[in-house]
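Methods, example record. To illustrate the input and output format used throughout this study, we show the complete record for Bifunctional protein FolD. The sequence lines were provided to the predictor; the line carrying structure tokens was produced by it.
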Amino acid sequence: MATENAAAAVIDGKAFAQTLVTRVGGAVERLIASHGVKAGLAVVIVGEDPASQLYVRNKGETTLKAGMRSDTHRLADTTTQEELLALIAQLNADDGIHGILVQLPLPAHIDSNAVLDAISPDKDVDGFHVVNAGRLAVGQDGLVPCTPLGCLMLLKDQLGDLSGMNAVIVGRSNIVGKPMAQLLLGESCTVTIAHSRTKDLPALCRTADILVAAVGRPEMIKGDWIKEGATVIDVGINRVPSKDPVKAAEGKTRVVGDVAYEEAAQVAGRITPVPGGVGPMTIACLLANTYTAACRSVGATPEKLG
Ligand SMILES: NC(=O)C1=CN([C@@H]2O[C@H](COP(=O)(O)OP(=O)(O)OC[C@H]3O[C@@H](n4cnc5c(N)ncnc54)[C@H](OP(=O)(O)O)[C@@H]3O)[C@@H](O)[C@H]2O)C=CC1
Ligand SMILES: Nc1nc(=O)c2c([nH]1)NC[C@@H]1CN(c3ccc(C(=O)N[C@@H](CCC(=O)O)C(=O)O)cc3)C=[N+]21
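The corresponding predicted structure is encoded as:
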């Protein structure tokens, strides 16, 4: 039965992420004290996309906040694949760098898979290397993609044991949908992955106790697609014109998710907002992965953070 004026609990990813960054900072300090190693992250960005520049700046600032080394390599969009591969080889060989992130998307003249697979799997803090995808699939320790890892932390914090729950993931990308499915399967959820060819997506979504939206289409998932009381994780980051027509005409934008938040919040039990939900968790998990990689590089056991 629908409750009148029901409103979902808002999952505060921003606050959770801040706590996680603080915890990573403490663990980083202890690794310096015990092993003399300061965790270091290198971020590589090719080209001038303003949204990418913003993410890269946020990542750099948060990395420093956690007491880590943060190097940013800004390359022109005319950079050749060979030049990029040479930089990665140099970072792979650098003992002070434990994590390497190459910001996606890359310019069209560069083969992204070739670049991602050139990163040493032990430094692949994005978890995009085929070896880390394989480790996740077979349940071995590796590095897990940051966005799905952050979503899982929020879900476990909210719901505790996830076993037996029906999880529907909308989106099958290698960076979000597929690894999210592996993680939830690992938690003994019953997992369904939906995509652009899925039949009757609204009906499928209504079966979900856990609904993860990673589509890249602004506010596509409507309130009446959601089962009452479900937990909704909105991964989408979409820039749309500002609500104010004057500001919109000036080119001002706002960020919305893949879920129609206002109506979904009337039905869901819990929901992540955009902004302030999954996005900040992605950055916090990037730091956690860099710390984990730094520990493994010296044979230390990483502290449990999530
Ligand atoms: N918060 C964060 O930290 C991050 C947010 N994002 C955001 O998450 C979203 C998804 O990103 P990403 O996974 O890279 O996106 P991709 O574009 O790689 O994948 C989108 C997926 O959605 C599916 N899809 C597209 N249209 C529909 C539709 N009408 N019905 C059902 N499924 C559909 C596609 O299906 P098909 O395979 O059939 O084409 C595809 O599997 C984006 O908004 C992105 O900005 C991404 C990374 C990190
Ligand atoms: N190699 C690689 N790894 C990535 O992890 C990667 C990438 N490439 N390319 C781009 C996407 C996108 N992404 C985001 C990370 C944080 C926020 C984030 O912190 N968002 C805030 C602010 C949103 C805003 O206002 O713009 C929030 O949601 O609250 C968003 C998006 C990482 N990505």
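Annotations derived from this record:
The domain at 145-279 is CATH 3.40.50.720 (Rossmann fold).
The pocket of 5,10-Methenyltetrahydrofolate (ligand 2) is lined by residues 55, 58, 101-104, 126, 146, 237, 255, 274-276, 279-280, 282-283 (CB under 6 Å).
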